[in-house]
Task: inverse folding
């Protein structure tokens, strides 16, 4: 099980940067596995960028979807064939315990366009840069606020810090809507509809990433157990900066090795 005590978390950014560990600043060397980005209280977050990791992630998603009675045909993660999509997965030892996928809007559109194209068009018409979160799944016994916060913070860093995305959307079952509103500040847009991909009711939720940035600045790292949101369990500003640098390095590494999950524009991306 993950550690969920109220003590200060143990962080290891897999980078050459100086990071915080038990309130003591130390230097950690980059690991040989370029896809491992962070270790935190018993779990590791990795960039899904290998066949083994992809298979494990897909197995988790299909298992979690099936356990809720959803169709699983369209739930597969393909990390190699979409240059605008990225998947992060959490591992406890060799077990996949959580995952989240983020897709930057492009000419091919987003999954939510199928049901909520008109709603998304309103943001595009205002020249807002948008993204979509999907395939969020966590093994119940590992479902701590810390794990939820870490996965969403990774998605935020990729969208906001690296791609300058302004608005995030997620299509969810309405019974989970209160969780996203309470924990992260999402609001609902559009009417209740039926998602044929999973054969279940769907709601579209929206989150302004400037708002998310402010919440992170105010609460990240405080670990306030009285808070209803998960922002107190986000990484601190210092840790976010180190992780952003590490994530840029990982994307650059993929680009120069011609792994087609990342646009070729990353070949010129500064690693700073």
Result:
């Amino acid at each position: 099980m993950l550690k969920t005590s109220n003590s200060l978390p143990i962080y290891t950014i897999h980078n050459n940067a100086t990071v915080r560990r038990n309130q003591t600043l130390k230097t950690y060397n980059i690991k040989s596995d370029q896809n491992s980005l962070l270790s935190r209280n018993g779990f590791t977050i990795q960039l899904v960028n290998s066949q083994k990791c992809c298979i494990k992630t897909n197995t988790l998603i299909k298992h979690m979807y099936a356990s809720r009675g959803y169709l699983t045909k369209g739930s597969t993660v393909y990390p190699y064939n979409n240059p605008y999509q990225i998947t992060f997965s959490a591992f406890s030892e060799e077990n996949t315990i959580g995952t989240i996928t983020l897709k930057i809007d492009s000419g091919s559109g987003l999954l939510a366009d199928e049901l909520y194209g008109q709603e998304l068009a309103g943001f595009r018409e205002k020249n807002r840069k948008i993204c979509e979160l999907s395939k969020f799944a966590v093994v119940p016994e590992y479902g701590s606020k810390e794990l939820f916060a870490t996965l969403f913070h990774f998605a935020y860093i990729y969208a906001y810090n690296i791609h300058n995305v302004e608005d995030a959307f997620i299509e969810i079952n309405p019974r989970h809507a209160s969780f996203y509103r309470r924990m992260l500040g999402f609001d609902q847009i559009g009417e209740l509809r039926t998602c044929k991909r999973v054969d279940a009711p769907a709601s579209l939720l929206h989150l302004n990433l400037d708002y998310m940035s402010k919440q992170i600045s105010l609460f990240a790292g405080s670990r306030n157990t009285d808070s209803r949101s998960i922002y107190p369990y986000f990484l601190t500003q210092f840790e976010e900066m180190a992780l952003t640098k590490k994530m840029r390095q990982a994307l650059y590494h993929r680009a120069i090795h011609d792994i087609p999950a990342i646009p070729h524009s990353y070949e010129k991306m500064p690693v700073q």
In short: Residues 237-256 form the longest helix (20 residues).
